[in-house]
């Protein structure tokens, strides 16, 4: 009995923590999601430079970084189970890359304000269990229609529950150990 309690304790603590510290997805009565103003305080998962998901897309001379954050409650649950719980919110912001500035003589760094913000939210209210949002400024955002390319792309290519864990170096080993990582992705 003591062994069972020891095994369940981390999962019970996550449940209590999740109940006390609910992720920041707040919806308006008309179904729009409110802008998560504190997303830059969330867990940073990864940054990609000039990533493109469309085969044959032309290269551009302007560089862009994608920064991916996840809400802390969902990250704690993922670390314990390898699964993203209901209410998980990912925020992906894009920022321009720059080469010249201050003492930098080579390489890229992120400059200026965010170019865009996209949200990926796990919620039973959406037909696939996940919804995608494109945020404009700090305004509430409507869920994208299920015909948007992001739904099929994430279904076909994501390594864990429609998320691109294959690009998140801190999350990938957790998913592999938990057996939730699809190695074919």
Protein architecture, described:
The chain is α+β, with helices and mostly antiparallel strands. Helix content is 24%, strand content 24%. It has four helices and five strands, in the order H-E-E-H-E-E-E-H-H. The chain has helices spanning 2-20, 72-81, 149-157, 172-178, and strands spanning 43-49, 64-70, 89-98, 109-122, 130-135. The protein has a five-stranded antiparallel β-sheet with strand order 1-2-3-4-5. Strand 4 and strand 5 (130-135) form a beta hairpin. The chain is globular. The termini are far apart. The model is unreliable at 1-20 (pLDDT under 50).
Topology:
Elements lengths: L1 H19 L22 E7 L14 E7 L1 H10 L7 E10 L10 E14 L7 E6 L13 H9 L14 H7 L7
Antiparallel strand pairs: 1-2, 2-3, 3-4, 4-5
